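Forgive a beginner's question, but would it be possible to get a protein, spelled out as residues, together with the matching structure tokens, please?
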Amino acid sequence: MQDVEMLNMEDYQEKLVKWQGDVQEDGLNLLLGDGGFVVTPTKVGYIISTSDKAGLERKFSAKNRKRNKPGVVLVGSIEQLEAVAELTPNIKKLYQTCFDRDILLGCILPWKEEGKKYIPDDGSEELMTDVRGTSCFVIKFGVPGEQFAQELWERENKLLFASSANPSGKGNRGLIEGIGSQIAEEADLIIDGNEYVASIQPE
């Protein structure tokens, strides 16, 4: 993995907020709107959170990322997962076990045919699925993003899409300073959760 560009976050103070433990309402409002692009802390570092094609296009641009990989859908509950993804009994049991134990899990699965109605009718499906029609459905990825996923689904049956918040091929070391200047400049909101990430991944 290549070296990570470490940012001076004072350069981005106008869009930087500290995660305080509750759902970040300004970030949620961006994701409920059109084209929102929010950098969010997780258990394993930072992600770009979006909820429609306009946001996904901004994500691909900011990351210089290839468009042919399965998209990532962040899921806030087992009920939501059952509504959108094809699950066998064993896969459902695996997800339920990990959900109950607060273990991060992501599996590449087909969409339920009826679950596709929740994908925004704006061209998002092309960017969220691969040639097999699959996406990676992820649970228990970290409280800040889980709060977004739960609220979006409960309020509007809206999905939360994600990608790692670092240039393709580079990590962010679990630090907000490591997201890279392109992502920092593109983001509408950057949620600083370094302390949360470190509480999960102290090393």
